[in-house]
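Throughout this chapter, every protein is written as a compact record of paired, labelled lines. The reader may check this reading against the record printed directly beneath this paragraph:
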Amino acid sequence: MSAVPQRFVVVPAAYVYLLRPSASGGDEVLLQRRGPGVPYMAGHWAAAAAGHVERGETAYDGALREAREELGLTAIDLEFLTTMHRTRGGEAIDERVDFFLTARSWTGEPAIQEPDKASELGWFPLGDPAALPVPMVPHEAEVLRLLAAGGVPAYTTFGF
């Protein structure tokens, strides 16, 4: 008798990239440096607001909550960017579904609200990949590369 394949346990997360026009043309993106106390990719640059979608919450609601909790923002006008299916090696717990959203309009001034989770915020030119900070969370760097190139498909994968 053959073994029944194990189903993946998908972990959803929502990411918000705040965008604004830069003085030199093009767009800038707001990124955060992950704090030294976070368990995943401490010290790496990432979306300014991101986190797991909670039980009973939509990805959009999770993105709005994370932007409020992490940056102190309200009235955020979110636009869908892409859904990424990713893995880190195939174990069931490493299967992720990430919902990436952008915003160009919000109420409030972005500021770190959780200093234990984020150590720094910065605006970076989106059109020049060499101008983005390093190190960066790899799957997020891929989405930013696609966004800068102007061709983000609705569905992306990473790690397969």
In short: Residues 90 and 111 are 36 Å apart (CA to CA). The chain is about 15% helix and 35% strand. The two ends are 28 Å apart (CA to CA).
